[in-house]
Here is the input.
Amino acid sequence: MPERTRAIVTLESGQLLLIDKPSGITSHDVVDRVRRLTGEKRVGHAGTLDPAATGLLVVAVGRGATRTLSGRLDGGKRYLATARLGLASDTLDAEGNLLEVAVPSFSRERIEAAMAAIERSKTQVPPMVSALKRQSIPLYRLARRGWWIEREPRPARIDRLALVETEGADVTFEIAGGGGLYVRTVVHDLGVLLGVPAALIRLRRTAVGPWRIEDAMTLEELETIGREGRL
Here is the structure.
């Protein structure tokens, strides 16, 4: 198994680990694994990925490393995402209660026009399944209880939104942005502009600040390096 040496960034006061998170586990699961392998309690990461999402998770090991990480995210994050038109979901993704409906075929030009309108927008309405809090309770916990709370539009940074390909009802796109950006809300808004329901079915994070998924290591590589005492 090849070792991706660029996946370990050595700092004066700790390390940054670039990890390719697989689907089916939480970002916190990855942090717990790093704690176990390094014996370091002060471990953090740059932005949660949902369990179904894959891609780059930048993990900081050591107090100084977490400070360094928080100061180097001005470059934002980049994702490759796939939306399914005609798929309604109460969570805006494939993890919720789903209802699929037939939709007309949309031209590439119409989809790109809708994306351009979203890219120009400076605000989003956060989804109910988000970590934003209402009276100290995360919205996703309220959503799990069946509660629906009105949310006001909030500033959202979208630097780039570009169509990659369409295949049937699936629309794959690349998106880059920063604070306030929810990809599932972009998918929902795309559906609204096209006049159909839409839900996020795949999400992969490809960049965080200056770091790229091409330099990341798998969890298997992480375990091998950890067992050999090279963390």
Q: What stands out?
A: The first strand starts at residue 8 and ends at 11. The mean pLDDT is 87.
